Amino acid sequence: MSLSIAFSGKGGTGKTTIAGMLIRYLISKEATPILAVDADSNYNLNEVLGVEVDTTLGEVRESMKTGDLPSGMTKDRYMATKLEEAIVETDLFDLVVMGQPEGQGCYCAANTLLSDFLQKLTTNYASIVMDNEAGMEHISRLTTSNVDDLLVVSDPSRRGLQAAGRIKDLAQTLNIGASKVHLILNNVREEPSERMRELIADMGLELLGTVRQEETLEEFDMAGKPTFQLPEDNPAVQDAYALFQRIIG
Amino acid sequence: MKIAVAGKGGVGKTTLTVWLGDYLSRKDKDVWLVDADTALSLGPALGLSEVDLPPPLVRQQGLIQERVGSGGFINMNPKVDDLLESLSREARGMHLMLMGTVAGAGSGCGCAPNTLLKATLAHLLVRSAQRVLVDLEAGVEHLGRGTISSVDGLVVVSEPSIRGLQTASRISSMARDLGLHRQALVLNRAAEGFEPPRDMDLPQVAARIPFLESLEERQQESASVLDLPEREQIDELCQQVLAQFERELSSES
Question: Residues near B110 by Cβ (< 8 Å), separated by ≥ 6?
Fold first, then answer.
């Protein structure tokens, strides 16, 4: 039985950075092998992790729609091969990137193949970490069983928290139990004010904890250096680890 | 004029979309704002509360069933022109529409809601006469070539971070591949004198959004990005962006 943890939140709140920290945490806990899934159309989990991406699953899906097929191969077989090739493998984790959203027309056939592929793939891993955009379009493609925990990341802004509240509501319709939705307040300069705590409660969210705004992390981000390579004793990494420990152990 | 706004999350796409809309609307233009980002924060950025938001298009199950159908027989070209009024809300003299995403489609078929969504976007961009501003999550590649050819300009927003600029560059080159060459880069929160790396293949910088302390402070209390004391400065940068597209459009014709 694998552990699957999903991230969501408004763009730019740091969900990808924190997802990278979780992958590292899981490596240190030997919850390996790990599959990282980047389901954000503006994908950059690979940049946080410091690996290159050749092909996205969205590109494979698109090529199946447009139908440039080598002779002597069925469409299904060809797509399966291409999907396999799109897995980025490293010593510490594997990564797949969903990529672009659907274009015009019907994607049902391609999506069915994609879901089958993902569901078979996920059985090979001890842990799955998925980085989603606020719409969480791909989350039900990944597993038939429930996501163990949904970590919603927000910055301390009203719009970020409103998006977080909406994500929690969406999570209900996707059958992720309400008790498994946790809010992480990222990039905080001070402990959340009373007003902010009220707003969080109004949104029906449960605050797991905070991750501080941190200079070295910001420098890594600006320079495009993988935050995955931050020193482990970095205060922001330590904040995140403490939160992961509370939900995973 | 039809404008699409794209960029990495959190770089200020929604804020700029609202500012551009407000600027045009004060010039007596009929403006439609379309939220095609899944965080759906365009309404709050206009100052609307949750209860005043229009319903996201993809949640209109009855309507989707009626216009597109379901199962084996779906209409890929649904009629949508009469839906614009009923699915939008007026806010600050503008019309706001929410697209939403087809979540949870993994187990079922998302074709019908997706078809209605794409048809509505296409209608607004291709056939309607209004000013339309679309706040996009990803780039433009999922819109289809026909729709993209009606977009007058793509605004790519980025912060000075490498990750933001890489996303901007990817969005820009994909849009160019699809024939959308009128592009403008807007830099947000960049230090004065900051220039993006030359080798990154980015559109020309049309405007810079300075760090606005008033906005930063207010974001904790309120979601609205309008009525800031720096309105003149904001109007000027909106004008710079629009002027770049107008110049390019007139030199083409």
Answer: A102, A107, A108, A111, B102
Which region, left, alpha or beta, applies to residue B245 given φ > 0 means left and ψ of -120 to 50 means alpha?
alpha
Residuewise pLDDT in 10s, chain A (249 residues) = 689 999 999 999 999 999 999 999 999 999 999 999 999 988 999 999 999 999 999 999 988 877 677 778 888 888 899 999 999 999 999 999 999 888 877 888 888 888 889 989 999 999 999 999 998 888 878 765 678 999 999 999 999 999 999 999 888 887 776 678 999 999 999 999 999 999 999 999 999 999 999 999 999 998 999 999 999 999 999 999 999 999 998
Global pTM value? 0.93
The CATH classification number of B2-252 equals 3.40.50.300
Cβ neighbors of B219 (< 8 A, separation 6 or more) are A157, A158, A159
Using CA atoms in the order A102, B144, B99, B135, what is the torsion angle rounded to 10 degrees? 110
Q: Do you know the residue count of chain A?
A: 249
Q: Do A47 and B166 count as a contact with CB atoms less than 8 A apart?
A: yes
> In chain B, what are the domain boundaries?
2-252
Q: Which residues of B touch A45 (CB under 8 A)?
A: none
What's the domain range around A132? 3-248
Q: Which of A13, A16, A42, A140 to mutate to test the interface with B (most CBs of B within 10 A)?
A: A42
Angle at Cα A143 formed by Cα A137 and Cα A149, nearest 5°? 80
Taking the CA of residue A136 and the nearest CA in chain B, the distance in Å comes to 6
* ipTM score over 0.85, yes or no: yes
For residue B175, what are its two tokens?
A: 């849009």
